[in-house]
Design a protein that fits this description.
cell inner membrane; Quaternary amine transport ATP-binding protein; about 40% helix; CBS domain; about 400 residues; alpha/beta; 4-stranded antiparallel sheet; 6-stranded mixed sheet; ATP binding; ATP-binding; CBS-domain
């Protein structure tokens, strides 16, 4: 079962809500509904699911409905129609007390503007949510200190927000949200106000934290590069509607419509696509089965100057070259023992193309793509350049 499931969720702002919803359900666009009713459709029939432990990014330009959507999830904004399920429990039908418990214990929210109290210390800010829950002072202090320690801020616990940088203040906001030990973390443009370098550091910290804590995170952003960098799945919105949901690779390589295609056309693919997206199936030799004669014949037939050597389980042993193989044939050698080379560069399937450039630039052989020591593919320079050329006219 998904951790979060959203079904046909809509929000209309204005007096003629019922009429606007009827028009929206008939497929009318946001601008037409506004003209005919004076009501604004903030979110229009949004449906998606979020698995336990994933970072699900909702993104779009200003006015797309992304921030409204995240506030519908914890009912800071009341839905006009639709259902929100957390672990199968319908949040949209909950009474005030049950909803309050969900907000306090199952969901925490991190905002763009940090939301810290200037008169409270960093520790007092971090334990604030626990304090309003009525938690005993000793327990809430212990949990707040642990959260600050995880964020690398424990040494600053007695300082005040004004004494910290913007990035550090945002880390306090994140620590405060995590002090509640929520199962779901809602982050609304949490890094948008930060300088680019600090923003990237915060993205790294979020990914590191996720590895250790395995929270379910719903992250709102207007920045496609940020979405592609941190999201397991991305929902791209326009005018209150979800245009496409998919992985970064799916959205880049198979946009659902012209809007999505236009939205992603300027993305630097080298920072999104991975080795798995561009690797080719390699021609290989089997150690213990093939020998120099077979190797030389196959290289001549296929026009190759070298070939990779694996075993029956696809474990990578190395490679042999045409010149070494020809010499071994001349010397009547029956195996690869004297000619096997092991200096072949390797990368993992999830290595970004951007990180493959340096590896392949210095390599005299193709780059092997491995998983758990087993060969799964191969990358040559033309594959890297071809992948980038599909995105835009790139001068290399």
């Amino acid at each position: 079962m998904p951790k979060v499931t959203v079904e046909n969720l809509s929000k209309v702002f204005g007096k003629k809500e019922e009429q606007a919803l009827k028009l929206a359900n008939e497929g009318k666009k946001k601008s037409e509904i506004l003209e005919r009713t004076g009501a604004t459709v903030g979110v229009n029939n949004a449906s998606f699911s979020v698995e336990q432990g994933e970072i699900f990014v909702i993104m779009g330009l200003s006015g797309s409905g992304k921030s409204t959507l995240v506030r519908l999830l914890n009912r800071l904004i009341e839905p006009s129609q639709g259902n929100i399920f957390i672990d199968g429990k319908n949040v949209s039908k909950m009474g005030k007390e049950d909803l309050r418990n969900v907000r306090r214990k199952e969901m925490s929210m991190v905002f763009q503007n940090f939301g810290l109290f200037p008169q409270k210390t960093i520790l007092e800010n971090t334990e604030y949510g626990l304090e309003i829950q009525g938690m005993a002072k000793a327990e809430r202090r212990e949990r707040a200190e642990k959260a600050l320690d995880n964020a690398g801020l424990l040494a600053y616990k007695d300082q005040y927000p004004s004494q910290l940088s913007g990035g550090m203040q945002q880390r306090v906001g994140l620590a405060r949200a995590l002090a509640n030990d929520p199962e779901i973390l809602l982050m609304d443009e949490a890094f948008s106000a930060l300088d680019p370098l600090i923003r990237r550091e915060m993205q790294d910290e979020l990914l590191d934290m996720q590895e250790k804590m395995n929270k379910t995170i719903i992250f709102i952003t207007h920045d496609l590069n940020e979405a592609l960098r941190i999201g397991n799945h991305i929902a791209l919105m326009k005018d209150g509607e979800i245009m496409q949901i998919g992985t970064g690779e799916e959205i880049l390589t198979n946009p659902a419509n012209d809007y999505v295609e236009k939205f992603v056309e300027d993305v630097d693919r080298s920072r999104v696509l991975t080795a798995e997206n561009i690797m080719d199936r390699p021609t290989t030799l089997k150690i213990g089965k093939d020998g120099p004669n077979v190797a030389l014949r196959r290289m001549e037939q296929e026009g190759l100057s070298n070939m990779l050597v694996i075993d029956d389980s696809r474990k990578l042993y190395g490679y042999v070259t045409d010149s070494d193989t020809a010499r071994a044939v001349k010397n009547h050698e029956k195996n690869f023992d004297n000619i096997l080379r092991t200096d072949i560069p390797t990368v993992q399937k999830d290595t970004l193309i951007n990180d493959i450039f340096e590896v392949i630039h210095d390599a005299s052989t193709p780059v092997a793509v491995v998983e758990d020591g087993k060969l799964v593919g191969i990358i040559v320079r033309s594959l890297v350049l071809g992948a980038l050329a599909k995105d835009s006219e790139v001068s290399l």
